[in-house]
Design brief:
Strand order of the largest sheet: 3-2-1-4
Largest sheet: 4 strands, parallel
Helix content: 40-55%
CATH topology: Rossmann fold
Number of strands: 4
Number of domains: 1
Strand content: 5-15%
CATH superfamily: HUPs
Distance between the termini: 35 Å
Structural class: alpha/beta
Number of helices: 7
CATH class: Alpha Beta
Length: 185
């Protein structure tokens, strides 16, 4: 039983690690270039960011380059009165100490809409990162490729995957993510 559980955790870590390297463009992150990190919200009843949104917020902050990046939080009020983007932004500012540019996109209710609604804010970016679990970020990269292939060329690998981080949810996210990616074909 323990062996199967450990096997599932290691399998999901491998799946997430691979997903973090797929569907990327040719851009590079640089200290003198302007980047945008889009944090994809997770259904959250609030009133504060839940553990999944806190995880995604950490990914965003560690993927951003201070002084040359903008973080965009994206997500509407799907499960609660406060938009996911607002919960994420509050956590990023007050708990993670981000003091750089931050934009809230509060209308989206799906990943497709997350991507569509942030496109105007991506136009001037030299590089773009989607911050979420690796398979969800890969899905967002594919959606950007379908909506705006020119912007998809600017997609770079974020720092979303860390071995052992949130391992208790990665097996579920791996299974769900693989099924959703398969449905995109």
């Amino acid at each position: 039983m323990i062996g199967a559980a450990l096997g599932g955790v290691f399998w999901s870590e491998w799946v997430h690690a691979r997903a973090s390297t797929r569907r990327l463009g040719t851009a590079r992150i640089g200290r003198t270039s302007h980047g945008v990190v889009v944090v994809l919200g997770f259904a959250d009843p609030g009133p504060t960011a839940n553990s999944i949104n806190r995880w995604r917020a950490r990914m965003a902050v560690r993927s951003a380059v201070p002084g040359s990046s903008t973080i965009i939080t994206s997500g509407g009020s799907v499960r609660g009165a406060v938009a996911e983007a607002t919960l994420l932004a509050r956590h990023i500012r007050s708990d993670l100490g981000w003091n750089g540019p931050l934009i809230e996109e509060t209308a989206s209710t799906s990943t497709w809409e997350n991507v569509r609604n942030v496109i105007p804010d991506l136009e001037s970016a030299d590089w773009i990162v989607f911050a979420s679990n690796a398979l969800h970020a890969e899905k967002a990269r594919e959606y950007l490729r379908r909506q705006r292939p020119d912007l998809a060329a600017r997609l770079v690998r974020g720092r979303e995957h860390r071995f052992g981080e949130m391992s208790y949810v990665k097996p579920l996210f791996a299974v769900v993510g693989l099924l959703k990616l398969r449905a995109l074909r």
